[in-house]
Design goal:
There is one protein chain. This protein has 241 residues and is α+β, with helices and mostly antiparallel strands. Helices cover 66% and strands 19% of the residues. It is built from one helix and seven strands. It has one helix at residues 2-160; strands at 165-171, 178-184, 190-197, 203-209, 214-220, 225-229, 236-239. A four-stranded antiparallel beta sheet has the order 4-3-6-7, with no helix packed on it. Strands 1-2-5 form a three-stranded antiparallel beta sheet, with no helix packed on it. Strand 1 and strand 2 (178-184) form a beta hairpin.
Length: 241
C-alpha cells in the first residue's frame, strides 16, 4: 500500500509538474502574446498616427493644389488683361506713330513752303536790290550831270552878278504866316546877309550856307520884305505872299 501510495504521489507529482510547466508555458505564451499585442497596438497607433499625418499632408496638398489652381487662374486672367493692355498700347503707339508721321509730313510741307516763299522773297529782294542799285546809279549820273551843269552855269551867274540862290515861300498850316526857303546853288559855301522889313520891326542876320545847303526863315507876316545880300552879287529882294 505504501508503495502504491508512493507511486501515486510520484505520478501526481509528475502530473503537477507537467501542469505547472504547462501553466508556466501558457503564462509565458500569454505574456508574449500580450507583449506582441501591445507591440501591435503600438504599431497600430503609430500606423494610425502616420495615417493621420499622411491625411493631414494630403489635405494640405489638396489645399495647396487649390491655392495653386486659384493662383494659376488669377495669373491666366492677369495674362489676358496684360495681353489686352499690350494690344491697346500697341494700337495707341501705332496711332501715335501715324499721327506723328502725318504731322511730320505736314511740317515738312510747311517747311518746304516756307523755303519756297523765302526763295521767292529772296529773288524779289535781289530784284529790288538790283533796281535800287540801278536807280542809285541813275541818281549818281543825274547828280554828276547837275553838278556839271551847275559848274558850267556858275561862271555865268557870277558874271551876271546874280545871287546863286533859289527862294520859295511856304504858307504855314497853323497861322497865316509864311516860311521862306533859301537854297545855295553855288558849289562853294556862301555867306549872306538877310534883312526883314515891312513887319513893324526890322530884323537882320548873317548866315553861312554850305554848298547845296539851305536855310529857312520862319514866321514871316504876309507882305514882309526879305532882302538877301552878298558883296559879290546883286541884292535879291522877295516879298512874303
Amino acid at each position: 500500500m505504501g508503495f502504491v501510495f508512493a507511486i501515486i504521489l510520484v505520478v501526481l507529482a509528475c502530473v503537477a509538474y507537467r501542469l505547472n510547466s504547462a501553466v508556466t508555458n501558457e503564462k509565458a505564451q500569454l505574456a508574449q502574446a500580450a507583449s506582441e499585442n501591445d507591440q501591435a497596438k503600438a504599431a497600430l497607433g503609430k500606423a494610425e498616427a502616420r495615417a493621420t499625418d499622411l491625411q493631414l499632408q494630403l489635405d494640405r496638398g489638396k489645399s495647396l493644389r487649390s491655392d495653386l489652381q486659384a493662383q494659376l487662374d488669377k495669373a491666366q486672367v492677369r495674362q489676358s488683361d496684360l495681353q489686352a493692355q499690350l494690344g491697346k498700347a500697341g494700337a495707341d503707339l501705332r496711332s501715335q506713330a501715324d499721327k506723328a508721321e502725318a504731322r511730320a509730313s505736314e511740317m515738312q510741307a510747311e517747311f518746304q513752303a516756307k523755303i519756297n516763299s523765302a526763295s521767292d522773297d529772296s529773288s524779289r529782294l535781289r530784284k529790288d536790290l538790283d533796281q535800287a542799285r540801278s536807280q542809285a546809279e541813275g541818281l549818281k549820273s543825274q547828280l554828276a550831270k547837275a553838278q556839271s551843269d551847275l559848274a558850267r552855269l556858275h561862271p555865268l551867274a557870277v558874271k551876271a552878278r546874280i545871287l546863286p540862290v533859289t527862294t520859295s515861300f511856304e504858307k504855314n498850316f497853323w497861322d497865316r504866316g509864311f516860311t521862306l526857303h533859301v537854297k545855295n546853288l553855288s558849289p562853294d559855301p556862301l555867306n549872306v546877309n538877310i534883312t526883314i522889313t515891312g513887319t513893324g520891326n526890322a530884323f537882320a542876320k548873317s548866315v553861312a550856307m554850305e554848298s547845296g545847303g539851305s536855310i529857312n526863315v520862319e514866321n514871316l507876316a504876309e507882305g514882309a520884305r526879305v532882302v538877301i545880300e552878298n558883296a559879290g552879287y546883286d541884292t535879291l529882294s522877295v516879298t512874303a505872299q
